[in-house]
Amino acid sequence: MTRSARRTRRTLQVAVAGTAALLALSACSSSDDPSSKSDSSASAPTDSSKKLSGTVTVFAAASLKESFTTLGAEFEKEHPGTKVTFNFGGSDTLAAGITGGAPADVFAAASPKTMAIVTDAKDASGTPATFVRNQLEIATLPGNPDKVSSLKDLTKAGLKVVLCDKTVPCGAAAQKALDASDLKLTPVSYEQDVKSALTKVELKEADAAVVYKTDVKAAGDKVEGVEFPESADAVNDYPIALLKDAPNADAAKAFIELVQSAEGQKVLTEAGFLKP
Predict the structure, then answer these.
(1) In sequence order, which residues have a C-beta less than 8 Å from that of residue 182 and are 6 or more positions away?
(2) What does pTM read for this prediction?
(3) In the beta sheet, which residues pair with residue 138?
(4) Cβ–Cβ under 8 Å, residues 140 and 201
């Protein structure tokens, strides 16, 4: 082999060795340097790490007004940058609005039957969960001047009684209690939600109304409550659900979690609701 050929071979060997060393160094650097790795968890935060913001729109049964207003204020305090707006009313009317396309994030109904209007229309996301229960009570004028002591007393001639409409959960429950007692009652009016029925008594436009215990409690000394045993057979479950097309789903889920939490349940039971 000539001197020139030996020099060329030695040059190639050095070059190959250098390349191999460079590749090994590169591989070692790639495996040891964490900054060279792709960290998907850092670039895609989990739901729990997201900062909540924007408006949460809650459609809720009228009987939830006081307790949900309290929870809404607490939610805004816990999550600066959020706002909770409520649409309170008869559950059947709210359900019709949701199925009709009204923008909302959460639906809290006063009965499974009215929640079914939404779930049957495929407008709920996931399965609704019962978060509280509610029981009926008779609301009379302060001091109970007509001496109402039972459901049967509401059938007295001349007594002006108000009921919720039969399509509204409080009205359906009242009718169930009346049917179980074989009582016939013709009210002076049927109201579209429980707050409207209670207001008739507060304004002395009616002598009595069949409403929820929570509403009697919220009214304070404006009315007097009379319990009746038949109400135990007409207790309403209250389901809550995230809506399928919720504009602010993350915040809506967090609000539902608050309602179901120990803190939320404390507010609801203090308002007179029963635990689920």
Answers:
(1) none
(2) 0.80
(3) 210, 226
(4) yes
DSSP assignment of the chain equals --HHHHHHHHHHHHHHHHHHHHHHHHHHHHHH-GGGS--HHHHS--GGGSPP-EEEEEEEEGGGHHHHHHHHHHHHHHSTTEEEEEEEE-HHHHHHHHHTT---SEEE-SSHHHHHHHHHTT-EEEEEEEEEEE-EEEEESTT-TT---SSGGGGSTT--EEEE-TTSHHHHHHHHHHHHTT-----SEEESSHHHHHHHHHTTS-SEEEEEHHHHHHHGGGSEEE--GGGGGSPEEEEEEEETT-TTHHHHHHHHHHHHSHHHHHHHHHTTPBP-
Residue that has been written with the tokens 């609000």 in this structure: 255
Tokens of 139: 């609301």
Please state, in angstroms and as integers, the Cα–Cα distance from residue 256 to each residue in 47, 64, 192, 239, 246, following that order.
15, 14, 26, 11, 13
Residue 50 has a pLDDT of: 74
Angstrom distance (rounded) from CA 192 to CA 201: 15
Q: What percent of the chain has pLDDT over 70?
A: 82
Identify the residue with better confidence: 123 or 28.
Answer: 123
Give per-residue pLDDT as tens, 163-222.
999 999 999 999 999 999 999 999 999 999 999 999 999 999 999 999 999 999 999 999
